[in-house]
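Worked example 3 (structure in, sequence out).
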């Protein structure tokens, strides 16, 4: 939506680094396990922002596509990739209107919530592919400050993924950081010996 583009462009323009240069701690912690699990090295970073996770994945040998509505964020992300000496395909897209296409061995959904996109993300995975989800949780102690639709509800992430053919390898709801967060690692069923080849 145009208002999201304007809001995020202004946030990303307002400071050198809005969410920091370091990758998400969840991704950094799980990267070695992910590299063993995934059937290949194609990755999609949904709403990649300033590219901290895309660039991190590329330095770990992934062929990454990062999608975002903010051209300011994407320009910073491209600079960071160049500084890190890696190539990432950054694509300007409004995920309210454009559904990503292709097949990916790893899909990231970090700090972004668009519930109707979740089945699409699962569909984009190759058999045996992994989806990592990490976003803000509304709790009674920390109620949403903005639009409540942008926050997960307790237990929601587990319920959302319970219906898909695959395995939930990890789930937690934590208030250890600045904000309560729900995280999940899902692996799509690898139905046939030749899948993903
Ligand atoms: C909190 S930031 C998260 C960035 C990144 N995932 C990370 O964790 O570093 C939210 C991102 O969602 C993007 N975004 C918001 N609405 C969007 C939309 N409709 N389509 C694509 N991206 C959108 C913003 O531009 C912003 O980069």
């Amino acid at each position: 939506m145009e208002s999201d583009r304007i809001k995020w462009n202004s946030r990303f323009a307002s400071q050198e680094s809005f969410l920091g240069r370091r990758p998400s701690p969840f991704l950094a912690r799980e990267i070695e396990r992910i590299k063993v699990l995934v059937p290949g090295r194609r990755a999609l970073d949904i709403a990649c922002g300033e590219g901290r996770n895309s660039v991190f994945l590329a330095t770990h040998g992934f062929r990454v596509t990062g999608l975002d509505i903010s051209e300011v964020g994407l320009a910073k992300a491209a600079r960071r990739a160049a500084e890190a000496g890696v190539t990432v395909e950054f694509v300007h897209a409004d995920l309210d209107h454009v559904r990503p296409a292709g097949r990916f061995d790893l899909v990231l959904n970090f700090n972004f919530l668009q519930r109707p996109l979740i089945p699409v993300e699962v569909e984009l995975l190759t058999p045996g592919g992994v989806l990592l989800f990490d976003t803000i949780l509304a709790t009674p102690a920390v109620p949403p400050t903005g639009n409540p639709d942008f926050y997960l509800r307790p237990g929601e992430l587990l319920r959302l993924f319970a219906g898909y053919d695959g395995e939930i390898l990890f789930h937690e709801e934590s208030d250890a950081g600045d904000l309560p967060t729900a995280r999940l690692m899902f692996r799509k069923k690898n139905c046939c010996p030749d899948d993903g080849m």
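Notes: The radius of gyration is 16 Å. The pocket of S-adenosylmethionine is lined by residues 1, 4, 8, 19, 24, 47-49, 52-53, 68-70, 73, 93-96, 110-112 (CB under 6 Å).
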